[in-house]
Fold this sequence. Notes:
Blueprint: E1 3-8, H1 12-23, E2 28-31, H2 48-54, H3 60-66, E3 68-70, E4 72-77, E5 80-86, E6 100-102, H4 105-118, E7 123-124, E8 128-135, E9 138-144, E10 150-160, H5 167-172, E11 178-193, E12 201-205, E13 210-215, E14 221-228, H6 246-250, E15 254-270, E16 275-276, E17 279-281, E18 287-288, H7 296-315, H8 321-354, H9 358-375, H10 379-389, E19 405-406, E20 409-410, E21 419-421, E22 424-425, E23 436-440, H11 445-453, E24 458-461, H12 465-469, E25 477-480, E26 486-490, H13 494-505
Parallel strand pairs: 1-2, 1-10, 2-7, 4-12, 10-17, 23-24
Antiparallel strand pairs: 3-6, 4-5, 8-9, 9-10, 11-14, 11-15, 12-13, 13-14, 15-18, 16-17, 19-20, 21-22, 23-25, 25-26
The structure holds flavin-adenine dinucleotide (FAD).
Amino acid sequence: MRHDVMIIGAGPTGLVLALWLNAMGVSVRIVSKAAGPGTASRALAVHARTLELYEQMRLTDAVLAEGHRVRGVNVWVGGERRVRVPLDGLGEGQTRYPFLYIYPQDRHEELLVSRLEAAGVPIEWNTTFNGYEERPEGVTVRLRLPDGNEEVAEARYLAGCDGASSAVRKALGVGFPGGTYQQTFYVADIEADGPPMNGELNLALDTSDFLAVFPLDEGRRARLVGTVEEDEEHVGQMRFEDLNDAAVQHLRIDVKSVAWFSTYRVHHRVTERFRKGSAFLLGDAAHIHSPAGGQGMNTGIGDAINLAWKLRSVLQGEMSAQAADRLVSSYEEERMAFARRLVRTTDQMFSLATANGAVPAFMRTRIVPLVLPVLVRLPLLRQFIFRTVSQIGIHYRGDTLSEGRAGRVHGGDRLPWVDTGEGRSNHDGLNEMRWQVQVFGEAASVLANWCKANGLPLRTFAWTPGAERAGFLRDAIYLVRPDGYLGCVASGDATSVLQDYFGTKGFKLPLV
Ligand SMILES: Cc1cc2nc3c(=O)[nH]c(=O)nc-3n(C[C@H](O)[C@H](O)[C@H](O)COP(=O)(O)OP(=O)(O)OC[C@H]3O[C@@H](n4cnc5c(N)ncnc54)[C@H](O)[C@@H]3O)c2cc1C
């Protein structure tokens, strides 16, 4: 049977892509060489933008029912707690989820797998991608099945969600330029007593060792991420007990048990292409970076949702072949630019936190504790940090699909969030995963008629101080894409702007 999309890899990226495509009526096949979902906790942070996007699939409540909200960050220097940054209300007014949230990746993957299976999409475990050929009408993919036989399967598109060592990326023949950090890192999920076991994020900035303690719950369970001394031999076979970890001792962490321990090298790389013909790269297959800021998994999920609606539009015949090519190419344009910015910024943060030498050590132990308490009191800076880390600040301004500006909002921005009262918001209708128009104030009847005739829901909200604070302009039109980003934004003669927008992008009206 020929599927629309063949997904290689059932980590968070592949699972989310399969869920979204299936919900939009696209036929998918998803295979993974693993025997089942990942069992290591790996990515912990699920950021506000992911929680917003998860509303589309009604996943957010399930994630929030199980994880842990982090109330503060403590910075320790030389075994003393020097700064506490409260996180409560950090992103208040910007999103329904104005906090830092922890939900381990193994539980997260189990949730995605169970939802996918409930939707009737089986995951084919123990099935390995072995190569593919591009054909005029799509791809043929070679798979090694659990019984050792090879199958040649057909699909319209191929999605490589197969992680950092991606076989799909290698088959595409595209490079993965970047580098590898000098240090070796370790992760340990522990149960322990001691001052940092307080449900908050604790960072130890010492002259040489780096240690971050991520809470896994309110009390005794936490994830340690630290550096392994360079002269320690046999890093691969190391156990937790072999660590010579001054930072753990400085923080007076009394470890009772270790549930998971692993050492790893950290890379910073972005693939040269996110798309080649009918094949796409997503998630760790396309970009890897330091764990600073917990961005990796969230970025893969964002890639999947960015690509899903574009493939749906093309597969369901919403446009001409030439326009279809431009639309799927916008996946590379939008996500590659973001991945490059992300790798650059996480690299800078990570290098400062871990660099050896007198100057970086002086910065960490003297300068950071002095300036941080002052900086975090600046409301604009707090907002900026939240927008960046939570990924609600991701935008595609200036890209092919983004046009116009009204108020402080540009085409390409994430639809700003506005609390519209009684527990509702202007994001509520995004779960329909379709184009829509939003107006704050009054919508002209000609606009209402145009939207009705062309298959776009029109959502009108009262003009409020909240809408103004979010940057909207009264009575302007905001055309929202199926992934919650703005296509075009305009005031004035709205219907001709919309007509032109869909016309130049090659969409057939009325939308299906
Ligand atoms: C120790 C550690 C800590 C981390 N902490 C964080 C964090 O705090 N926050 C964060 O956001 N990220 C973190 N990350 C990164 C995060 O785990 C990854 O970004 C995330 O797993 C990427 O998801 P993915 O689906 O793209 O790839 P993966 O999770 O790597 O999934 C790849 C899938 O492809 C399958 N596969 C591979 N090759 C083939 C093949 N040839 N054929 C078929 N299937 C194949 C694999 O079996 C797997 O199912 C961490 C990673 C590590 C290792």
